[in-house]
Design brief:
26% strand; Trna Endonuclease, Chain: A, domain 1; 279 residues; 9 helices; alpha+beta; five-stranded antiparallel beta sheet
Length: 279
């Protein structure tokens, strides 16, 4: 991108993926020894899915063959008075529909997945994994399975300070199952500084936005020669107040770029994204 040079700690909005936005737990090696991974384990471990209100059982080696578009959460989301967590529904532009979550942490994850883009579907509570350890059989239900053209991304969400010994074993088992299916796996423990507030700001303008005044063309023209501050960028258009919404929309859709490692304000540098980066 013309005029922009990455510095240590920067997070370019038009280049980053989910893994760059979040902090992750990575203590798999310490728990892997607890799992029973002798020859043939992918045939012994099982995954229980739910499709058309019926249970579907498969070996872990066959995970990737399940048509996820027909599946539904294996465990229902519940709402009741006095519960400690806050479930709800999050709309995702990537899929064009709402997806259930069981906590604020999961809601933030869905927003970040939507911003990272490239997904065609997201299935909450996708399957119940039954896996073997040295002390017997156990079960774990991952939080989300994101489906993309390049493959699946299995995700668990848990604040780092709340990950206990049992969680470590379950997360490591989920990772082994994901790798056997050719998927990636993440345990999201939190977010890099300013990412949450920045995504909240950008998401206000993520839905389709009509541009009858041609302000988006003016924004692109204003950064054609190099980065400009957000305030100067919108001021270069005929209607700065309206152009603010369009600038946020273009940043969300990666047609303009900013550094997400700092708060979004009028001093934020904005640049034109490389060809093909937008969506």
């Amino acid at each position: 991108m013309s005029g922009v040079t990455a510095r240590c700690g920067e997070l370019w909005s038009d280049r980053c993926g989910l893994a760059g936005l979040c902090t992750q737990w990575a203590g798999f090696d310490g728990a892997r020894g607890s799992l029973a991974l002798a020859d043939g384990w992918t045939g012994r471990w099982r995954a229980q899915w739910r499709a058309s209100d019926a249970s579907v059982l498969c070996a872990v080696r066959d995970l990737a063959s399940i048509p996820t578009s027909r599946c539904e959460p294996v465990r229902r989301f519940s709402w009741r008075r006095g519960q400690r967590h806050r479930p709800g529904l999050q709309f995702m532009v990537s899929t064009g529909r709402h997806h259930g979550f069981e906590s604020i942490a999961e809601q933030r994850l869905l927003l970040a997945v939507d911003f990272a883009g490239g997904v065609s579907d997201v299935l909450g509570q996708p399957f119940r994994l039954r896996f073997a350890t040295g002390s017997g059989w156990r079960e774990h239900i991952p939080d989300f399975l994101a489906v993309a053209a390049e493959g699946g991304l299995l995700i668990d969400v848990r604040p780092g300070e709340r990950i206990g010994d049992d969680d470590r074993v379950c997360f490591t088992a989920a990772r082994e199952a994901a790798l056997a299916a050719g998927w990636r796996y993440l345990v999201v423990t939190g977010w890099r500084p300013h990412v949450q507030t920045s995504l909240d700001t950008l998401s206000a303008q993520r839905r389709p936005l009509r541009d009858p005044l041609g302000l988006q063309s003016e924004l692109f023209a204003a950064v054609a020669s190099g980065p400009r501050s957000f305030g100067d960028l919108v001021a270069a258009t005929r209607l700065p107040a309206v152009a603010r919404a369009h600038a946020l929309h273009l940043i969300w859709h990666r047609r303009l770029g900013i550094d997400l490692s700092t708060p979004i304000n009028d001093a934020t540098k904005v640049w034109a994204s490389p060809a093909g980066a937008g969506r």
